[in-house]
Amino acid sequence: MSKVGEPDAPECAVTQDADCLAGGSGFIATHVLRVLLSRGYNVVTTVRSATKGDKILETYADYAKNKKLAYVIVGDIAKDGAFDEAVQSDPPFSYVIHTASPFPSSFNDPVKDVLEPAINGTTGILKAIQAHAPSVKRVVITSSFAAMTQDSTPPKIYDESSWNPITWDEALTSKTYRGSKTLAEKAAWDFVDTEKPAFDLSTICPPLVFGPVEQQLSNINSLNTSNQQILNILQGKHVHDTILLPAGSSIFTDVRDLALAHVRAIEVPEAGGKRFFVTAGHYSCKRIVDIIRASHPELASVLPKNLQEDLPADIYGYDNGRVKSTLGIEFRPLKECIDDTVASLLKLGV
């Protein structure tokens, strides 16, 4: 069978439910797609171009041949009616997983390039489902820890009740990405509360996401932002550094655990109407470097030699109990996550 790796999810009864996966060529979505197919779902995924869609069908050729996998092109997720066609299917969809949201490394216009695609893409797919897909029982949306972080007075322990207090005006400045994730998730919950659709909603809030690279890359530097930290280390860009701060938060999750959480969120009845804070725990760049050095002594010449621990003793805590108890997720430790990530990067020729 032509597929990338075997599923890490526990065995599950084969299902014939149809599922729409929005944004199927992304780093997280690639892993979500693998889990969905391995668990017996019929999947239609959205992509921005036929080139991306054809690569997905090529990767999962047997599923495509057996009509278990197809794609629909959605070129601009912020456009009115962008998802109207995508959510209509025969057989009709039972679930929709929405992972599509911009995370540009640079942009010219915070509204047109980031905020509108995130917010309008989220509300747009909900409107399309309500209008054209009455069979949908649940929608799962990928949000972010960025929608939870609080800079001025952070809580001692983050959990699903934590919300980023960012405003629209603040999102127009240096906190655009955080604003996009916060405002998009809030817009989703507001839609459900106001419109009272036939489906319910779950949102998934991960911090930095490490893990093996399975998606098709235009080049090695088009990695997701979290894995880019590891790539930079492997490429020797920090060999002389003594302090190396995390890019973003100091907590992480493995993409394979995150993907399974998305799928379990459509399978577990109790997941409806809930946020899920999907994190495995703290990490630091020194811990990552130490793991790489121990597993790959041949890379010693490119690794920082005198890196200091930068994780503060009073770092905020986290409560991932809901993910464990409701979704049944058992998180991979940092070492396994980093070892597998490095192995996939080395396989790509880093």
TrEMBL record:
Pfam families in the cross-refs: Epimerase
Keyword Oxidoreductase recorded: yes
Family: Belongs to the NAD(P)-dependent epimerase/dehydratase family. Dihydroflavonol-4-reductase subfamily.
E.C. numbers: 1.1.1.283
CDD domains xref list: AR_SDR_e (cd05227)
Organism of origin: Sporothrix bragantina
Record flagged with keyword Oxidoreductase: yes
Name the record gives this protein: Methylglyoxal reductase (NADPH-dependent) gre2
InterPro entries named in the record: Epimerase_deHydtase (IPR001509), NAD(P)-bd_dom_sf (IPR036291), NAD(P)_dehydrat-like (IPR050425)
Keywords: Oxidoreductase
GO molecular function: methylglyoxal reductase (NADPH) activity
Span of domain NAD-dependent epimerase/dehydratase: 21-274
Name of encoding gene: GRE2_4
Listed transmembrane segments: none
